[in-house]
Specification:
Elements lengths: L1 H25 L19 E2 L9 E2 L9 E6 L4 H15 L4 E6 L3 H11 L3 E7 L3 H5 L7 E5 L5 E6 L7 H11 L1
Parallel strand pairs: 3-4, 4-5
Antiparallel strand pairs: 1-2, 3-6, 6-7
Length: about 180
């Protein structure tokens, strides 16, 4: 009987392995990385203007008394192209939007804005992603609603799409 027991051990190990894999596939971990800064003041920063003719962006600009949507984008980012018309629509609805261009050059940013619309009041350039990392951002596009005192109230990871507009507007109103 002992030799038959040794033959069953690989089958038992395989069964445990398959059960573990099946469990993990049925309940994957949440891949969303949320900023730990929600409810906290923005980190201090002063970014140079990303394109000529558009004001630079500093953390002080985001403490001007009214809420703002801070959008992190890049001209090389395909999802940023998808969200561009939605941001233009939000701007038409009165949402003040500032931006940080991540690892991008002035000519590429200007071309992006000309091709896809420019909803931004100010655009700062973050060539080394230092401000992006300080914000706890996981990539582009990503948006934050900042209240008039410079406190982060909401984070939206990924492109802002039409179905996200009600949530963005509700969070905007709550930040007032």
């Amino acid at each position: 009987m002992k030799p038959k027991l040794w033959l069953a051990i690989p089958l038992i190990v395989l069964a445990f392995f398959l059960a573990a894999v099946g469990w993990r596939l049925s309940s994957p971990p949440n891949p969303t990385v949320k900023s730990r800064l929600i409810g906290q003041p923005l980190p201090e920063f002063a970014l140079a203007a990303a394109v000529p003719g558009k004001p630079a962006l500093t953390s002080a600009d985001l403490k001007a008394g009214e809420p703002r949507l801070l959008n992190l984008f890049a001209s090389w980012c395909v999802p940023c192209i998808a969200e561009a018309p939605v941001l233009v629509d939000l701007r038409r609805r009165g949402v003040v939007i500032d931006a940080i261009a991540i690892r991008d050059g002035p000519a590429d940013i200007a071309r992006f804005l000309a091709d896809h619309g420019d909803p931004f009041a100010r655009i700062g350039t973050d060539p080394q992603s230092q401000v992006q990392m300080a914000l706890g951002s996981s990539g582009v596009p990503e948006s934050f609603i900042v209240d008039g005192r410079g406190v982060i109230r909401y984070q939206h990871i990924g492109p802002v799409m039409p179905q996200d507009v009600p949530t963005i507007l509700a969070q905007w109103e709550q930040a007032k």
